[in-house]
Amino acid sequence: MIDKITIQKGFSLIELLVVVVIIGILAAIGTVSYQKYMKYPLFK
């Protein structure tokens, strides 16, 4: 007999949530760093 192999296409909800959380953390860190950079300009 031939067993049916199910091929999963796409991403699960958990995988998408993990990616969104990681992107959110990186965006938050980048925003804070950018604000600190703009607060203290290079030319004083």
UniProtKB/TrEMBL annotation:
Transmembrane intervals: 12-34
Gene3D superfamilies: Glycoprotein, Type 4 Pilin
Keyword Transmembrane helix: yes
Database matches in InterPro entries: N_methyl_site, Pilin-like
SUPFAM superfamilies xref list: Pili subunits
Keyword hit for Ribosomal protein: no
Ranges in a coiled coil: none
Keyword annotations: Membrane, Transmembrane, Transmembrane helix
Alphabetical list of Pfam families matching this protein: N_methyl
Name used for this protein in its record: Type IV pilin PilA
